[in-house]
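Aim 2 progress update. The chain analyzed this quarter is reproduced below.
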Amino acid sequence: MKKKLPDLTWKHLQNFDYLKPIEVYDMLKLRQDIFIIEQNCIYPDIDRIDPHCEHIMLYSDTNLVAYCRLVPPGKKFDKWSIGRVTVSSKYRGNNYGRLLMNRSLDILKRKEIKTVKIEAQQYLRSFYESLGFVKISDAFDVDGIPHILMKTEFV
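Predicted structure tokens:
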């Protein structure tokens, strides 16, 4: 018997001011749960970049399943980037990370963005390569976790 997937709702908030307080809470809680607690990495997640970003959220009922932010040029890199890509541990194994990235890339394509950069955890290299990203740096340490820079270009 095939497992029934939950009904999902996408939210694309193009301005930080459009986020409801509960959405900010959900976003920060999910990022904390994954990047700080699960990965055992104490780092400054609240980095003053969020107010400049667009936020992509995937909900199942009131549960935040997946999240990322679209970072404009000049805030992280010289090009648009996708960051803080995360999927709740309760919902992994259902391709939500791929759905999230594809949704994000589609949004950026519609904006006629030509190049997108990411700072990826090195162990996720093949996942991002499957989405069209290519490695553009050697591995480097970010708060004790090996990362690489990657980019994709749209024609």
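Helices lie at 21-38, 96-110, 125-129. The chain is about 25% helix and 35% strand. These observations will guide the mutagenesis experiments scheduled for the next reporting period.
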